What does this fold into?
Amino acid sequence: MSINIAKANQGEFYPFSQTIKANENILSGLLAEFDGDIEIQGTFVVDKDNVYVDSELNYSIIFKCDRCLADVKKDFCVRCMASFYLEGEEVQEGFYPYNNNVVDMTIPAEQEIILNLPTRVLCKPDCKGLCSICGTNLNEKSCDCDKLRTSENITPNNPFGVLKNLK
It folds into this structure.
């Protein structure tokens, strides 16, 4: 996602709005995928050789519930602020380089998306998850596996089976 600043006057704020294709690699290692493109809109201002961008990212991600693996769609509205310095000038800490009057917002936008990923996603707060024995979705129906776990029915292969005799 690039912003052309060639015609920008110093100290003036300029609006921009773009749609960018979601990079699925951002979500690698997660059970998730983007639901559509990423909308980015905001303003930028040029001050000498620096460019300051204040923007908002709007996107949706479809996650798998951490307990039952059902699809869960989450909508995000994330603020993304970034500062840029002219490549070849003195490197400034916390700034991204730009050159040829083009500011690339890809890296700051992707970093904000990563930083705003939830640590846990549930389809509902009281999700019961999957049965650890038969895999039944306990939100949809119950199973009899909990009855099989009682002390009367402990299988001989269970290493904890000897504990039932320790009363």
About this structure: DSSP finds two helices and eight strands in the chain. The helical segments are 106-115, 145-148.
